[in-house]
């Protein structure tokens, strides 16, 4: 039972402390911030990766290039060509210009195949098609081996267990396939819809799944605001958030009712990016206002008198700076006590059931022993009567056998006597 309780506790504890970070995103930052009431609060949420609307960066994020590895001499590597969206293909060897190319619509339809015309013996080797997406930090590579032959009957295409092998006739043309039509590599029409940012607010005592959604931001410029806080300029996010990567939330005229757990979610479905930043905002007492001194206007301007220990810097109230917490705190402590209550209730219920089963088992065993004793006594009485009956039966059988034997002896005697009489009669007659 102790092992069962420990295993159940270990199973439920992570669910009490963690809040399904896999579905909400990876928590990359957590802070506790305390600010006085009536001030301006800024919850920072910056991400340089969430910058997609800059076309000058967008054109350079996707690159395709073909490389050739020759076994002779000494496995040399040669760059054949490369191309980016909006940029013409660049061929590195002047001999290959006009002879080796890839389709101009590669980044539109996802066909990055390499076309080689007038194949020669120098074209033999292992070709690699490399697709790079620097913004999403993704890289893919496809290898194809090209061999040449002088006989048309030996042309073929097969798989050697690691890569595709083409055997091509010298002087002919060949297309080395490299196709990837995922929206990640092509010019998707909904790229700006793949990037989403939103803020959630969890008041004290509210479960994480019941948190309030404050605002949804899309890279396309669409903005969805929830609740009355944004329309009255109580909260705001910069209009150029996706241009500069700054999604900070600004809260004006901070009040005690605004305290709680704020979370900034950044989702880039296009690249598979999911980040989450958590801020626990606590509101302190308001700043003390300077006292109002009513003085009459002097006829002669008074000369200010400064005391030796007067320092104007002592009158400035410094705000508490945000503190970065390295350990991610639980979003709500009440969840832990709730889960602990479930565990203890389950443990006591199991102990109660085991106690009931033990008591019932003992009573049943006790009744079984009493029943066996009574049954053994009854068997003892019955066994005594049967012995008497058997003894009587045996006696009767013995008497019957004795009587029968006497009867048989008498019959034999009478028969002998009748024989003797018959003999006597016969003797008398013969005489």
Brief summary:
With 431 residues, the protein is an alpha+beta fold. Helices cover 30% and strands 28% of the residues. Helix 1 (2-17) packs antiparallel against helix 6.
Characterise this structure.
- The chain is an alpha+beta fold.
- It contains 6 helices and 20 strands.
- A hairpin with a 5-residue loop joins β3 and β4 (76-83).
- α1 runs antiparallel to α6.
- The chain starts with a helix and ends with a helix.
- 17% of the residues are buried.
- The model is unreliable at 1-22, 305-320, 324-331 and 385-403 (pLDDT under 50).
In percent, how helical is the residue content?
25-40%
Low-confidence sequence ranges: 1-22, 305-320, 324-331, 385-403
Compute the number of helices: 6
In whole angstroms, the N-to-C terminal distance is 118 Å
Q: How large, in whole angstroms, is the Cα Rg?
A: 51 Å
N to C succession of SSEs: HHEEHEEEEHEEEEEEEEEEHEEEEH
What fraction of residues sit in β-strands? Answer: 25-35%
